[in-house]
Design brief:
heterodimer, A: 6 strands, B: about 220 residues, mainly alpha
Chain lengths: ~180, ~220
């Protein structure tokens, strides 16, 4: 099964989910921080296997305003199906600077207030599977993301005409180094 | 957001300064009059008083830079700095309270800090940050905000106060604060940060892994 990758906002709070007996009773801090929906959708990037995680990280990095450390959660799509959550390929909202990743943008759809509890259950399940953050909850240091970008530059995967001003600055620095 | 420093300069350039100068001058003249009348008490007092006789020859004109005036100005400077610090500290508190700190997205507090650094007003803002820091040691959001601000400008610009604050928070009980304190050294990208991080023994495991990665990249890419 493929995986959907999403950026985490507060990694420290996510791990606290592990101890919650009932996610619906947990403070709303996590859903209000982590599940900021737009028209009932949650933005993610698809990968076929964990080995491709770098591609999702790159897609998220080039659509961010600046390159810094980032945390990611890797969601097995089977888990989404088990919790009756739908997902489908969508437009990322912009033409991204790595065109070969453009079609890997997926949205988790039809998120209602009720469905937020299901999203929480998915996250809790992942945290319980990976309590030390080694496989499905992953931190990338800023240097690692820059290395990925360098690799993408070397492989001529980056279309700088689609890069934001900040990203262009970062790419220039990487080229110079 | 309005820059409090600039706002204050506008005030100080006009009525406030002239008011202080006028008040200090009149105080000096008043004190001089009373000291003259004390020292020359008796029948000769009115005869020798230049203000009554009109004879100012040999009388030293009360210069602005007399000790008393210097004291007044020093006091004014102290009051001015205190006023500014209070104002900037309040601005920072409001800014951080309303802000959120998301990786990959610059916060308003960081933008403010970068503007301050570009305008060469960093010293006062660092004092204000220190003030906010010491008053909010149990407020993780405020501490995260301070750390985000100090790490958004280069290592040398915030030295040594920035490093003191980051160091103090490397062992904070809140995980999110420790995480941000480590990130400060990553963002500063200075090899000097390695020494600070070497002694850390972090929990949980993912945070320790992050420290190790940061040190690795500082060794490789950090500036001396």
């Amino acid at each position: 099964m493929p995986f959907l990758v999403r950026k985490l906002m507060k990694i420290d709070e996510i791990f606290a989910l592990s101890d919650a007996a009932e996610v619906s009773k947990v403070y709303a801090d996590i859903p209000t921080t982590e599940f900021r929906t737009k028209n009932g959708t949650l933005s993610t990037w698809i990968i076929d296997s964990l080995d491709d995680l770098g591609n999702a990280v790159l897609a998220i990095a080039v659509t961010s305003s600046e390159i810094s450390k980032m945390d990611f959660i890797v969601i097995d799509t089977q888990l989404l199906s088990d919790n009756a959550l739908e997902f489908q390929q969508t437009y990322a909202g912009q033409d991204i600077a790595i065109p070969d990743l453009q079609d890997t943008h997926y949205d988790i759809l039809n998120i209602t207030v009720e469905k937020l509890v299901d999203c929480m259950k998915v996250y809790q399940s992942i945290v319980r599977t990976d309590p030390d953050g080694e496989k499905y909850i992953i931190r990338y240091a800023a240097g690692e993301i820059k290395d990925l970008l360098k690799g993408a530059l070397v492989d001529h995967r980056i279309d700088e005409t689609k890069a934001s001003k900040k990203l262009k600055e970062e790419l220039s620095k990487l080229k110079a180094s | 957001m309005n820059n409090p420093i600039i706002q204050f300069q506008e005030i100080s350039d006009s009525s406030f300064v002239s008011d202080i100068v006028l008040r200090s001058s009149s105080r000096i003249i008043k004190n001089r009059r009373s000291s003259n009348s004390t020292s020359s008490s008796g029948s000769h007092s009115s005869r020798n008083d230049p203000e009554q006789t009109g004879n100012f020859q040999g009388e030293r004109v009360p210069l602005f830079f007399e000790q008393e005036a210097i004291d007044v100005i020093a006091n004014y400077e102290r009051e001015r700095k205190k006023y500014l610090l209070t104002q900037i500290s309040n601005e920072i508190r409001i800014l951080i309270n309303q802000d959120e700190f998301v990786d990959g997205e610059p916060s308003k507090s960081e933008t403010y800090m970068r503007e301050v650094a570009e305008n060469g007003q960093i010293d006062l803002v660092m004092d204000a940050l220190m003030d906010v820091y010491s008053g909010n040691l149990l407020n993780p959001h405020m501490l995260e905000g301070i750390l985000s601000m100090i790490s958004s400008v280069p290592f040398d610009i915030v030295a040594p106060k920035g490093q003191v604050m980051a160091l103090g928070l490397l062992s904070n009980k809140e995980l999110s604060v420790r995480d941000k304190a480590i990130q400060c050294f990553e963002r500063w990208n200075s090899k000097r940060g390695i020494e600070y991080l070497k002694s850390l023994d972090c929990h949980p495991q993912w945070l320790q892994k992050y420290v190790e990665k940061v040190m690795l990249y500082l060794e490789r890419d950090g500036v001396d």
